[in-house]
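TL;DR need structure tokens for one chain.
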Amino acid sequence: MERDPKLITTEDGSHSLFVPDLKETYHSFHGALQESRHVFIEKGLSDYNEKFNAISIQVLEIGLGTGLNALLTAEWAQVNQVAVEMISIEAYPIPSDMVTKLNYPALLGKDHADEWFQSIHGTPWETRSEIHPLFHLRKVNSKLESYPLPSQQFQVIFFDAFAPNKQAELWELDILGKIYNSQATNSYFVTYCAKGQLKRDLKSLGYEVETLEGSPGKKEMVRAVKY
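>> reply
TL;DR here they are.
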């Protein structure tokens, strides 16, 4: 499928991309930045760190997309002085000319944010790269279905695929089971989606499933815990 994303501005002033073929945006049109912060950083990394007091965290991200989650993770690692190793799987990298148009570094207002963002997109695929001393990233250009995941490794999963009605193959029970098996004991799975079928599937795999308040403009999100 051809993907020719178009730059859009969401309601909190942050950019996202719209994919005409899918009739879908990469982030909530209510606010890309606030959605990523709420779902993946606050309910993922921050809550995990508070609960388990981690020295370091290994993150698996499904969908590098615009790189917003990775940039916010780089920021979080520096602020909290916690080492984060991230593997991010992306089957359809965005065009390089689109990266320079995204306004996330300016909105963060942090020293080095632009440098981090350019590194996130500019580092080689399939290679562990240092974005800064506390944040290392390995981008994987592959479909999740065909990529072999390690067993019992990751503490936090950012599940940021397109919605189930747009990318159904990534929400199937066998794929969720593959994710479950890649997670360490005492680990989090977080996603913006709160569909009933997803929650039932996660419970069937052995997760303890929590329905949490969603990001602004969205009623709910899901966090699943593997104990």
